[in-house]
What does this fold into?
Amino acid sequence: MGKSDNLPAWALRLRAERKRRRWGRTRLAQEMLKIADPYTLPKLKSVVGSIRGHETGRHHPSADVYRPLYARIYGRTDAHLFGSEHTLSELTVGPTGTPDADASEQLAQAMAVAEVERLCPDNADKTVPIATNAGSSLKEPVIGGAQMKRRAATQILAALTAGVAIPLDALETLLSALGHELGMADDYTLDDWDRTVHEYACALPLTSPAALIGVLAMDIASFRGVIDRRPEFDLPRAHRVGARLAALMAMALTETGDFATASRWWRIARRAAESSRDEELATWVLGRHALVAQTIGMKSVALALADDAERLAGGRPYAGVAEACAARAKIFGFQDPLAARRALDDLDGLFGRLPESVTGERVAVWGYPEERLLSCRTGVLTALGDAGVADDLADEMARSERIAPRAHTRAELKLAWYLAKSGDREGVGLAVRAMAALPADQHTTAIRRMGARVHGSLTSEARLLPEAQDLRALVAKSSP
It folds into this structure.
C-alpha cells in the first residue's frame, strides 16, 4: 500500500492542484504571500512547511487563513477542495472485478508514455523505468512518436475494459498527453459535447454496460479537463453536460452490479444538475435515480427520491416525474395493490401531458415513449397477478423486438414470470431460452433480478425441473 493511500481526500486534492500547475511548494508559498493580507502568514520557509503539512495530511489548513488562499489561487470553491462530498476527481472508474495482470502492465506502460510527454514533449525517445503493480520495473525504452501514442491509447482502453480501476485525475493526465492521437481536441464546443452525451444516452440500452464504462470514463475525464481550460464556456450549460455524463455513468455502473460507486456518481449528477439551474434536468436525475433504486431493491430510497422529483417539478409535466411515478407504481406492486393502481393512473394522466420531444424520443434514456409506459404497466400488473396482463405482454414483446435485445429479453422474462406465478411450467423454459439467447455481457442487474424473480415464483415441484436448475445457474453465472 502506497503512502498516499490513507491520506484524506482534501490533502490529495491540494497536492493534485499544485502538481497540475507544475509548481513546487516554494512557488505556491510565494503565490500565497503575494495575495495574503499583511502579517497573516509567517516567512516563506514556514509557509512551505505548512503546505507540506497540509499535503501530507498532518495538519488541516486553517479556515480563516489557508483555506481561502488555496481556494483563491486554485480557482476552486472551498467545498470543492475541502468538502466531504465526492467530486469527479476523487472517483475511480473501470468495470468491477479482478483486474487482468497484463492489462495492469499495459496501463503502467501507458502512464510512462504520458510522463514522457509531460516532461519531455520535444524528445521522441526516452527510457522511463517505473514501478508496476507486480513490484517489478519497466526497463525497456519507451519509444516516442505517433506510434507510441497510439499504442498507449490502446493500452488505456484495454486496461479500462479489463477491469483496471483508474482515478479520474490519472485518466485526465493520460488523455491530456495522448489527446491528439485519441482525437479529443480542446476545440470541441458545447454543441459537440451535447451530441456526444446524446450518443451515450442512445448507446446505454443497447451496449454492454461494462464496455460502455471504459469509453464513457475517457470522455468524462476529457470533459473535466476541458472545463478547467475553457473559461469561455457557459458554466450552467457545461454543468448540464456534466450532470448527464455522471448519470449515465451511474446507470452503467448499476447494471454491472457496482452499486456503491454508482451511488457516488448519482451524487455528482444531482449536484451538477442543481448547479445547471435546469429544473427539468434536475427532476429527471432524481426521477431516474428513483427508478434505478427500486430496481435494485432500495425501496425507501426510491420513494424519497420520487417525492423529491415531484416536489421539484411543481406540477410541470417532466420526464423525471414519469420516472418517479413508475418507480412508485413498481414498489407498490409488491405491497399495496390499490396504491399501485393509483400510481399507474397518475402515470397515464401525466403521459398525456408530456411534450412530444419526450414521448417521441424512443432510444435515448431520457425519453419516455409509449413503449416505456407499456413496460411499466406490464411489470406492475404482473407483480399484482392481474390475469388481463397477458395481452399487454404479447404487445410488449412484439414492440421490444424492434427496439433492443435487452428490452426484448426483459419482456420475455416478464411473460415467464407471469406464467410461473400462474403455475404454468412453460414459464421456466421461456426464461431459460430468453437468458441464454442474450449475450453474457448484456446480462445486466435488471436482467438477473428478473430471472431470479421467475425462479422465486416457481412451485416447489417446478423447481425440481432441469430447466429450473438451468435458470438458477444462468442467474448465478451472470452475477458480478
